[in-house]
Amino acid sequence: MASKEKNLPTPASVAKIATESVALNPVTVIGIFGSDAGLSALVREGNGDIARVTVGDSFNGGLVEAISKDSLILSRGGKSKVMKMPKA
Predict the structure, then answer these.
(1) How far apart, in whole angstroms, are the C-alpha atoms of residue 47 and residue 55?
(2) Pairing, β 38-44 against β 50-54
(3) Which domains are seen in the chain, by residue range?
(4) Angle at 83 (CA atoms; ends 38, 62), nearest 5 degrees
(5) What does the alpha-carbon distance between residue 55 and residue 64 come to, in Å, rounded to a whole number?
(6) Distance of CA 62 to CAs 24, 31, 39, Å?
(7) Do residues 57 and 65 touch, judged by C-beta distance below 8 A?
(8) Under a CB-based contact definition with an 8 Å cutoff, are residues 13 and 19 in contact?
(9) Would strands 62-67 and 71-76 be described as parallel, antiparallel, or unpaired?
(10) What is the pLDDT along the chain (88 residues), one digit of tens a residue?
């Protein structure tokens, strides 16, 4: 539940976690959601835009073949690439 008090200092432990940086590839999976019957993924494109993709969508010059709870498989030029969610 959110506090209604304003201007409270952020606890140091929360500030540390909230400001950690994560090294990501230019094109990376940043989220996967939905039910097992129909997962979708949020993917950051090389230009910084965010795309929502599902199986069968064209993306980054390839075709999204599969999405699981922690990865996306992209087929391009006869090869498949597994794109995994980054680990914290």
Answers:
(1) 22
(2) antiparallel
(3) 25-77 (2.30.30)
(4) 80
(5) 5
(6) 20, 19, 18
(7) no
(8) no
(9) antiparallel
(10) 454 567 778 888 877 777 776 666 778 999 999 988 899 999 998 888 999 999 999 998 999 999 999 999 999 999 999 999 887 6
Whole-angstrom distance, CA of residue 41 vs CA of residue 30: 8
Q: Cα separation of 85 and 77, whole Å?
A: 23
CB under 8 Å to 87, separation ≥6 — which residues? none
| 75/64 Cα distance (integer angstroms) | 6
Q: How many CB atoms lie within 10 A of CB 31?
A: 12
